[in-house]
Write a structure and sequence with these properties.
Strand content: under 5%
Number of helices: 7
Low-confidence stretches: none
Helix content: over 70%
Largest sheet: none
Radius of gyration: 23 Å
Number of strands: 0
Structural class: mainly alpha
Length: 134
């Protein structure tokens, strides 16, 4: 079964619940509760954060190692640092230097960040299922 197929998983669970609940009202209540649980993806991220926080190294417990730190630094520069540099350079009259500041394509960078977050969710799923390698 594809782990990303939430609808299929929900249907499989509901098929089993149908045998436990006899009335349509009980089945509807069970379906609502099940849908509420599957609509909370932040729970998987929280589980990943808990597992990472247990590690003694800052590079593991802080976030996903090197690539995560690189993305964090580049996003901080793109959203905060570059603007601060422009203000400082303008206050010292260095307007020609402003055009030389690198511009970060945050669209591509965010794609990478979201991919890393997705891999973190898969890693958490592996740990929960007990199939993760050490």
């Amino acid at each position: 079964m594809d782990i990303m197929n939430i609808k299929g998983l929900s249907d499989s669970v509901m098929t089993g619940l149908d045998e436990l609940f006899t009335s349509d009202e009980e089945r509807l209540k069970a379906q609502i509760i099940l849908n509420e649980h599957f609509s909370k993806p932040h729970i998987l991220q929280a589980l990943a954060n808990i597992e990472e926080a247990k590690h003694s190294s800052i590079f593991v417990s802080g976030w996903r190692p090197a690539l995560g730190w690189l993305c964090t630094g580049l996003l901080a520069y793109a959203w905060i640092g570059r603007d601060l540099l422009i203000v400082i350079l303008m206050s010292y009259g260095q307007t020609e230097t402003i055009n030389k500041l690198p511009d970060i394509n945050t669209g591509e960078l965010l794609t990478l960040v979201f991919a890393l977050l997705g891999l973190g969710g898969v890693r958490t799923w592996e740990k929960i299922k007990g199939v993760a390698r050490r």
